[in-house]
Amino acid sequence: MISVNEIELKFKLNSLKEKKEIELKLKNLGAEKKGVFFESNSLFDFSNRAISENDCVLRLRRMNKKSFLCFKGPLKSKKYKERMEIEFEVNQKNTLKELRSMGLKEFFIYEKKKSVYSLMNSVVDVVELPVIGFWIEIEGSKKEINLIAKKLGFNSNKGIVKSFPALFNEEVKKKKLKKKFMVF
Fold first, then answer.
1. Any residues with CB less than 8 A from the CB of 170 and at least 6 apart, and which?
2. For the whole model, what pTM was predicted?
3. 28 and 20 in contact (C-beta within 8 Å)?
4. pLDDT digits over 161-183, tens only?
5. HEC sequence for 89-126
6. CATH number of the domain enclosing 165
């Protein structure tokens, strides 16, 4: 089990070209590419939305034939996406059965493709998501997030703390799309 105080910021990339430019900048900064991954994420809550109403998240992630259950506590900051996170590997089939037996329901599914880089003591994900496009997520200390963002050409004061599902829902409403889930 891993319990951490997660601190991150997101930045929108406007095109595939900008994504490739960011990956080149990461390489030139000496970032180590850890791999390219596909994730499928399911968010769970009770029918009364008790978890999300308290600004928390319960997520089951499937990646590379492994599954991870994660609980994220409420946000601690408005400038950074900062919250307590507890995550551990689980058996997907058994966990789904247990979650459902407790009255939890899968209410949102989202997929993402990401390239993961290690830079200094931080993790930088270059992400592609259905509907909302390309993003960069920087996770680390506030000091390193600010420094990496600046080196990549971003202003950390303009970083985004909203979740990908929240950004997806905004885009669906704005464009009047008939999509319930963020899947490829």
1. 162
2. 0.92
3. no
4. 999 999 999 999 999 999 999 99
5. EECHHHHHHHHHHCCCEEEEEEEEEEEEEEECCEEEEE
6. 2.40.320.10
